[in-house]
Amino acid sequence: MTGITAAVLGSPIAHSLSPVLHTAGYRALGIAEASSYGRFEVTEDQLAAFLAEHPEHTGFSLTMPLKTELVGLAADRSWHSDETAAQTGAANTLIRYPDGQRIANTDVIGIVEAIAECQPAATDTAAILGSGATAASAVAALHRLGVAALDLYARRPERARGAADFASRLGMQAAIHPLADYQPGQCPLTVSTLPAGALSPESFSWPDSVDAATVLLDVAYAAGGYSVGADIAAHGGQAIAGERMLIHQAVEQQLLFAAAAGFDAPPQTWRPRLAAAMTEALRTAHTAKGDRR
């Protein structure tokens, strides 16, 4: 049986849970023995050479700081880009099909699904914390969810201009603010795209409580340290763990890898199966480490 050979690339990469998720997906698909999923420390200036040196891989998952570098590389090499990657200027997936290489952004669907499964109250306003590549994906995701007005908060506000301009092109209103001006609970829906360790309990001025309908998705998932999502929950709101986004974007990646490898895995049938398998694998991994999640 021919399997899938894939890996996650980025720097730092030791904390990545992608091997746990994709290996669980392989088991669900019944191809675990013939497949592999690795993890490699790769920086921006190393990406092109690394890809050239690993032609046997079906595809790659890419994380910080490679998402914008991959888009530029794809343009230079005339690789096909899916609509979401082209819109956001960020891609987290490289797939090698028999007729050529393609890039995709599955972060957007990951954010959409993570928020949707929480079933938040309908809102046309939202906030985004951060200004990196994932901020553009958050803009696209919130647009799909019906948000019409955005407040963008960044440590260096000028760096949020790209995300704000992208929101404007989508027909959304967008305002930029310093990160310190964010007021927890003021906005009904927030997506924090900041990396783990970027915030502390003193980063914001917290009210005694927030409305129970207040929802915050924190895409950072590294164990330990301060969690703005946990703080929202402690003040009465709803926190969506970044691992939910991670699972849903990984499901889409695995479906793309499976299609490239020639497997019959209809998305409508396999999305819930893969999500369930990956969720259980993460639960097992956390239990083994003694994490309370």
Automatic annotation (TrEMBL):
Residues 8-94 form the Shikimate dehydrogenase substrate binding N-terminal domain. One of its GO terms (molecular function) is shikimate 3-dehydrogenase (NADP+) activity. Transmembrane segments: none annotated. GO terms for cellular component: cytosol. It comes from Brevibacterium luteolum. Pathway: Metabolic intermediate biosynthesis; chorismate biosynthesis; chorismate from D-erythrose 4-phosphate and phosphoenolpyruvate: step 4/7. This is Shikimate dehydrogenase. The keyword Amino-acid biosynthesis applies. PANTHER family: BIFUNCTIONAL 3-DEHYDROQUINATE DEHYDRATASE_SHIKIMATE DEHYDROGENASE, CHLOROPLASTIC, SHIKIMATE DEHYDROGENASE. Pfam families: Shikimate_dh_N (PF08501). GO terms for biological process: aromatic amino acid family biosynthetic process; chorismate biosynthetic process; shikimate metabolic process. InterPro entries: Aminoacid_DH-like_N_sf, NAD(P)-bd_dom_sf, Shikimate_DH-bd_N, Shikimate_DH_fam. Signal peptide: none annotated.
